[in-house]
Automatic annotation (TrEMBL):
This is Putative restriction endonuclease domain-containing protein. Coiled coil: none annotated. Keywords: Plasmid. It comes from Jeotgalibacillus malaysiensis. InterPro entries: Nuclease_put_TT1808 (IPR012296), Restrct_endonuc-II-like (IPR011335), Uma2 (IPR008538). The keyword Acetylation does not apply. Transmembrane segments: none annotated.
Amino acid sequence: MKRDKLYIYSDIKTWEGRWELIDGVPFKTPAPSRIHQEISGELFYQLRNFFKEDGCRVYSAPTDVFLRETDEYANPDTVVQPDILVVCDENKLMDKGVKGAPDFIVEIVSPSTAIKDRNQKRPLYQKHGVKELWIIDPAHPFIEQYDFIAGTERVWSSEEEIQSSLFKGFSVNVNSLIK
């Protein structure tokens, strides 16, 4: 693969492994760690239970999320796979993934993805209209919460119960996720 070339969705679908694209630049996504999967599984379970009577849908990676400046999603140059996402607008759902910004995203960082998740994906999510983002680092006993609607950030420690700013009534004990 040439590093000076920009790519689109049809390119990465022919490659082996999991890939994301940010503005045409490809990023290979390594397999997550066991601890990453435990955190993801527990949070996914809690979100699914919270939304079981609601119209919102909860998905886990790998689910392609297509982000574009326009409404044309045929072959975008930005496709990400958040660890967990919640979509409340059924019009954004398509067979191959989600077109446009999910309402809520969780990224569980690893040493190989932390810089990309914080420095590239976080501003990308804000730009495209994600309403709330949680960043979880299994190596540290806290969760970063970004409320893009209010323009606020908060770090929740292991002794606290994180409250979603978007979904009233949804909260998680930080210690229950990061042990």
